[in-house]
Design brief:
The chain has three helices and four strands. By secondary structure, it is α+β, with helices and mostly antiparallel strands. It folds into two domains: 29 residues; 76 residues, no CATH class. It is elongated, with a radius of gyration of 22 Å. It starts with a helix and ends with a strand. 9% of the residues are buried.
């Protein structure tokens, strides 16, 4: 038991190879979304269209969900997102940064929009 805890096996031994295979299996076979390590602004609500979060510096970040997923990040989709956000909060907004949010298939499902101060 002591040899397993302190790992005194030589590199290239059978035990070393088994450990490397276990590590590789963990890295490649566990789905990425099981770790839930997304920032709050990257989490898309199933029911709400607009979510507001605040980053460490106190900047407002709005997560705006698209009505229908699309493939490309274009100026038209960004204008649509800004329009949806302005309608939701009831006043014009100047966006300083956009972050596309995609699902696991690569489709664009939402944007994170930073509000300019």
């Amino acid at each position: 038991m002591k040899r397993f805890l302190l790992w005194t096996f030589d590199r290239g031994s059978f035990q070393w190879d088994i450990l490397c295979l276990l590590i590789l299996a963990f890295l490649f076979l566990i789905p990425r979304d099981r770790f839930k390590d997304l920032p709050d602004y990257m989490k898309v609500s199933a029911t709400e269209t607009v979510l507001k979060t605040v980053d460490r510096n106190g900047n407002a970040i709005f997560t705006v969900k698209l009505d229908e997923p699309c493939l490309f990040d274009t100026d038209n989709t960004r204008k649509l997102i800004v329009g949806t956000l302005e309608a939701s909060i009831g006043k014009p907004i100047a966006a300083s940064r956009f972050q596309p949010i995609r699902d696991r298939t690569g489709r664009l499902i939402a944007y994170a929009v930073w509000k300019e101060r």
